[in-house]
Amino acid sequence: MSENKDQKFVYDFTEGNKDLKDLLGGKGANLAEMTNLGLPVPPGFTITTEACKVYLDSGDEPAALRDEVSAHLDALEQRMGKKLGQADNPLLVSVRSGAKFSMPGMMDTVLNIGLSDRSVEGLAKQAGDERFAWDSYRRLIQMFGKTVLGVDGELFEDALEAAKEAKKVTVDTDLDAGDLKKLVKQFKKIVKTETGRDFPQDPREQMDLAIRAVFDSWNGDRAKLYRRQERIPGDLGTAVNVCSMVFGNLGPDSGTGVAFTRDPASGHQGVYGDYLQNAQGEDVVAGIRNTVPLAELETIDKKSYDQLMQIMETLETHYKDLCDIEFTIERGQLWMLQTRVGKRTAGAAFRIATQLVDQGLIDEAEALQRVTGAQLAQLMFPRFDEAAAEGGKVRRLGRGIAASPGAAVGKAVFDSYTAVKWSRSGEKVILIRRETNPDDLDGMIAAEGILTSRGGKTSHAAVVARGMGKTCVCGAEELEVDTKRRRMTVNGTVVEEGDVVSIDGSTGKVYLGEVPVVPSPVVEYFEGRMHAGADDADELVAAVHRIMAYADRMRRLRVRANADNAEDAMRARRFGAQGIGLCRTEHMFLGERREMVEKLILADTEDEREDALKVLLPLQKKDFVELFEAMDGLPVTVRLLDPPLHEFLPDITDLSVRVALAESRKEPHENDLRLLQAVHRLHEQNPMLGLRGVRLGLVIPGLFTMQVRAIAEAAAERKNAKGDPRAEIMIPLVGTVQELEIVRDEAEQVIAEVEARTGVELKLALGTMIELPRAALTAGQIAEAAEFFSFGTNDLTQTVWGFSRDDVEASFFTAYLEKGIFGVSPFETIDKDGVGSLVRSAVEAGRATRPDLKLGVCGEHGGDPESVHFFHEVGLDYVSCSPFRIPVARLEAGRAAAQSSGSDSR
Q: Which of 474, 858, 861, 881 is catalytic?
């Protein structure tokens, strides 16, 4: 970053404000804000993130920085009436990092800068406490040596432990001034030995080196790892706060503490926090002595307590939110060291947002910005009692990927058949597999949760589990799953079929034994089994109800469900779905119907094909009648058959073995041989890019027309029953308008035949999925033949990136995430720059051709919070997601609308 000659790099705490977080970092902006409010903040100044960026880019501080720091230091010294490191009465300062986003413990801090061999004596006289002064000097050398000079911190710790052992004491506070003087000598010797230089005695050199160390810590391993985890941009840089020191360890009239304006765990109003008398902040963190509840400060120092309560009220009213505060009392004088909008649990977030509305501090639109879809998802899943889980009653086996949140307990089973069988007998089971496939669907439905040793967050197990609201842990590589012997082995522990296991989909932890669970009242509310206004209603449910009402009033995006049967459709409707955005008809052909599809695929003559289609037609019609009835009055988008045909045929290896055994035994095997030939004929190297989607409808005569006829006849039946079916027929995997025109013409002909035969007028919309780059690039042409587009972002992501999702997640995604190539998997959150730009251009081109074109999305991204905001921005009409994610999508659609209106006063 180039340096601007007129650029200002240093701001006094009196010059900034809370809106300058980009420039001053969160800590500096809030210190400035408290100073502006007239609160007691120790004087100081902030070096901007811009200075850090120049330093990181060039390796040197901005040319003007030293003079600016000198001017602000002079002003600070005049204000305090003493100079930095002054021998008889030293001014001491802290140098702390402070980025825009809170990164607790990830970057560096140095306290007590200004102490030296001379000034330590002056501090002792001024404080009237020799031990305090030498302890402060010891802390400076230790912190400075480790943070600034790169000395191994263990060397200082070992010397400290040796000093305690020599004195036969166990805690630092039992060392007297004489002990600490000796320790300072040892610490200085360690610095000299390890660095080849003496500990700097010039206080300005100490400060300048500490500032550089804070800049450097932005690119430390801890900080980079944390930023990747929290998806914080790497180019923001950190500010540096230079603040005059105040001490809480000067006697019983001093102390330090942390306060919250509300309970961050529950959101309840009251006095929350901890206080430690005669101590420094690091003593609270180190747990050297037990803290007391903040309320006890009232009896220890009523004047400071009353002042603190007044300040807490001022800050919460000003920030209009829960505030987290750090403070120190130095000889009866209260000082505010930091404030920020406090982190809170999901439940507290919802309660606090509605409380603040009731207090008139924020409006409904802003209340939506105080909660997130991720927090709502946390509230919806049953949870383990963490205390019980880690309390030793159960054994932790390992950890995998937290694929679908929640808590599940059951007996271990290793195949779907056993899962279904035991479940029907009333047993709760956990289905454990290396990985799952569509044939495991029955077992997954029957199980309380799913555990796999392979796969990632978008593997089959994960996607299906999330859709069903099932708890799922994937990719637990420590588990050796042996499905033949019906057991798994984990680090020498063998888990046999029938042993009870517990899996935590929120953390990925796997336990042997039963961990108690806490049920979720929020799901009971969405299911309609608990009413927000009932006398026994949970207050959290009431808060969620109000926030959801705000979101529904505010949002523009409609929310539909991905649902394939009436049961899922009815649940989706209870959860607030406004229709079905994706009915995957291939899911209707699993189980017993699979053989019927086999017959269709293997048909050699027109008559055989017609016979197979005649059997399938009434079954499909019945499915659609049930679906239209469940979603009466709401749109139902039915996707015609999409998966590769080989998925409906037996496994090629198993079939080859069967044929070979039959031949060796000279047994009849004509049917198996015929099947094997068909499987070989249909075998593809890359089936996801092969014979599927619209290509199936064009290659296998009668397949799509049978499905269209079933849809039309079901819609006519529902109309005759005084229902209001609103079916939409979606043709998948279209790459060119010609494909769509052929299938559309055939479909319109079938619909007209059904209308003529039944005498019922059917208004069935015909549209397509946009899931190939070519379809997105030619969307203007395709819109001439389509009444709606639904973006299939799962396949669009695969084809844009050239990824096979199932393969890349297991092979190199972890490395890509660690190296920062991805901030998050593009299968979880829409890739705005790549896939997103295709969606945007397709929206624009499609609407240019057909202004009334209806636009939606039905990939996994439809329920992802960040992606929902993108779909709102580009102008889609609806998102569609699994039933369990509907409340999250509703909330995020409301938040997106409120955000675009510019709400958030903090």
A: 858
- Give the whole-angstrom CA distance, residue 694 versus residue 524: 41
CA-wise closest residue to 674 among 686, 682, 684: 682
Shortest CA distance to 415 belongs to which of 396, 429, 395, 401? 429
- pLDDT, one tens digit per residue, over 103-129 is 765 677 899 999 999 999 999 998 889
Task: Name which of 197, 195, 169 is nearest 183 in CA terms.
Answer: 169
Q: Is 603 helix (H, G, I), strand (E, B) or coil?
A: coil
- Collect all residues with Cβ–Cβ distance below 8 Å to 62 and sequence separation of at least 6: 3, 7, 9, 51, 54, 55
Buried b (16+ CB within 10 A) or exposed e, 577-593: bbbbbbbbbbbbbbeeb
C-alpha 509 chain-centroid distance: 17
Determine whether 52 is an active site residue.
no
460 is catalytic: yes
Which ranges of 59-129 does DSSP label H, i.e. alpha helix? 65-80, 119-127
Is 85 within 8 Å of 77 (Cβ atoms)? no
Pick the catalytic residue from 72, 243, 318, 460.
460
Q: HEC states along 485-530?
A: CCEEEECCEEEECCCEEEEECCCCEEEECCCCEECCHHHHHHCCCC
Under 8 Å between Cβ of 732 and 771 = yes
Token pair 């919309």 in the structure block, residue: 765
832 DSSP β-pair partners = none
pLDDT digits (tens, 9 = 90+) for 702-748: 889 999 999 999 999 999 999 999 999 999 999 999 999 999 999 99
Distance CA 347, CA 327 (A): 27
Tokens of 318: 């000003």
pTM of the predicted protein model: 0.79
